[in-house]
Amino acid sequence: MPRFHIESLSMSPGAEVSLPDGAARHVQVLRMQPGDALRLFDGLGQECLATVMEMGRKSVTVTLGEPVHEPRELPVRVTLAIGMPANDRMDALVEKAAELGVYAIQPLVCARSVLRLDGERAAKKVAHWQAVAVSACEQSGRAVVPQVHPVRSVSSWLQSAEARTASEPVMRGVLSLRDAVSVRQWLASTAPQGAANVPRDWCFLSGPEGGLSAEEESLALSLGWSAVSLGKRVLRADTAPLAMLSVLGAQFEG
């Protein structure tokens, strides 16, 4: 059944809603007709059934049905802080991270970054990546859309990342090729499988092409981050964070 993202979703069965332009165009491309079923979600966790009621040249009206309760979120909230890879690799990284259940993505400019964004260009890229995340959630069945934060420099972001959540600390790991503990050992010590109280918030810092500089990694470690290794192989900038996210999913989803 097709799924579409719509902001400010009313959860009142029987209510009539005009789909936003993007979703309406998609419905028309799919050649859906009055009476066809679809699903709508608001990106904040709410989802409901809906039925196409009326098709216009550029508009689509649907009637809302019953709420849908199919939790598909990871049991932990994972933020990926990423030294942005160049070309289209960041698009693919955002897409796959959303599919794998990421909670938020923090794009970073690092010393070795090839892709450097600021000002209006950075804002447009973030809006584009947010749209990529929405599309990935439509496809993967998620009702919560991960937030793509504004681009920041790694040093300024690290200084602000010392903040704790309101209720508990964030588990922070730097994906490193240096003197790092294996991810298996790190998880066994911080959140062993079957533990009653697993930390809710996790954050992983990963470098761009060429990795983090020694100074950037040292800054993170001085602020309390842990150096974590994914193995002996050198992973691409767009592979390492996805591998870490997959490990977390396997660890906590069973």
Task: Give an account of the 3D structure.
The chain has 254 residues and is of the alpha/beta class. It has seven helices and 13 strands. The protein has helices spanning 21-29, 89-100, 119-140, 154-160, 183-190, 214-222, 240-253, and strands spanning 3-5, 16-18, 37-41, 47-55, 60-67, 77-83, 104-109, 147-148, 152-153, 171-175, 181-182, 201-206, 226-229. A hairpin with a 4-residue loop joins strand 4 and strand 5 (60-67). The two termini are 27 Å apart.
Primary descriptors:
254 residues, alpha/beta, 5-stranded mixed beta sheet
Strand content: 15-25%
Radius of gyration: 20 Å
User: Can you write the helix and strand succession as a string?
Assistant: EEHEEEEHEHEEHEEHEHEH
Q: Quickly count the helices.
A: 7
Regions with pLDDT < 50 over 5+ consecutive residues?
Answer: none
- What profile does the largest beta sheet have? 8 strands, parallel
User: Roughly what is the average pLDDT, rounded to an integer?
Assistant: 90
What is the helical fraction, as a range of percent? 25-40%
Shape: globular
